[in-house]
Write a structure and sequence with these properties.
Length: about 200
C-alpha cells in the first residue's frame, strides 16, 4: 500500500513568470554556462563581454526514486539571440537512453530540436502555449525560444532517466535554428559555420 502522507504536498502551485514550483530545486543557467552551445563563438564571446544574462531556469521535483516514479520540471527560457541563433537550452540525451519525455507548453513560442542518436535524423517540433510534444527515447532534445516572451513548459520523464550532457557538449546538435529574414530556419551546423 502506498503511504500518501510521504508525498508531503501532492499538488504544487507553479508560477509561469518566475519559473517557481513551490518546494522545487531551481537550476539557473546564465549565458556563461552556455559556452560551446551556440554556433557563433565570436558573437557569444562579445555578448558575454557586455553582460551575463540569465538564459533559463529549471525547477525540478523528484517525488520518488522507484522504477515507476516520475520526475518533472518547469522550464522558463528567455527570449533572445546570440548572433542569429535563438536562445536555447544545453540539451541532453537521457542517460537511460530508453527514457522518453512529455513536454507541455504553457507560455510563449518556440520549438524542441530532436535528434535521433543512430539514424541521425533531426527535427524541430513546435513547442508553444497549447502544444504537447512527445520526445521519444534515444533522442537528444533542446528547447529553443523563437518568440519575444519567455518560453515556459513542463517536462515529465521517468525517475530513472538521468541526464547525459557529455555527448552534446562533445559534438553538439547537428542542426542550428537561426533567424533569417525574421523567420526561424533549421540549418546544418557545418553550413552555418562556413558562413561565419
Ligand atoms: C527538461 C530540461 C530543461 C533544461 O526539463 O532539463 O529543458 O534543459 P537542459 O537540461 O538540457 O539544460 C528535460 O528535458 N528534462 O529531462
Ligand atoms: Zn530530458
Amino acid at each position: 500500500m502506498i503511504d500518501l502522507s510521504q508525498y508531503a504536498i501532492l499538488a504544487r502551485g507553479y508560477d509561469t513568470t518566475t519559473g517557481e514550483i513551490k518546494g522545487a530545486a531551481v537550476v539557473r543557467r546564465w549565458l556563461s554556462d552556455l559556452r560551446g552551445s551556440f554556433v557563433d563563438t565570436q558573437a557569444f564571446e562579445s555578448a558575454l563581454r557586455q553582460s551575463d544574462p540569465l538564459i533559463y531556469t529549471v525547477s525540478s521535483l523528484e517525488p520518488g526514486k522507484g522504477q515507476g516514479d516520475l520526475h518533472y520540471g518547469l522550464g522558463v527560457l528567455m527570449p533572445g539571440k546570440i548572433g542569429a541563433e535563438y536562445y536555447l537550452t544545453k540539451g541532453h540525451f537521457h542517460a537511460w537512453r530508453e527514457a522518453a519525455e512529455v513536454y507541455i507548453g504553457l507560455r510563449g513560442t518556440g520549438g524542441i530540436l530532436l535528434e535521433e542518436q543512430s539514424a541521425g535524423e533531426s527535427q524541430i517540433v513546435p513547442l508553444a502555449a497549447g502544444t504537447i510534444v512527445y520526445v521519444p527515447g534515444h533522442t537528444a532534445h533542446r528547447s529553443i525560444n523563437t518568440g519575444h516572451e519567455p518560453l515556459v513548459y513542463i517536462g515529465v520523464y521517468p525517475a530513472s532517466a538521468g541526464h547525459d550532457y557529455g555527448s552534446i557538449a562533445k559534438q553538439n546538435f547537428r542542426k542550428v535554428l537561426i533567424e533569417r529574414d525574421g523567420h526561424p530556419v533549421l540549418l546544418d551546423r557545418t553550413d552555418v559555420l562556413a558562413t561565419i
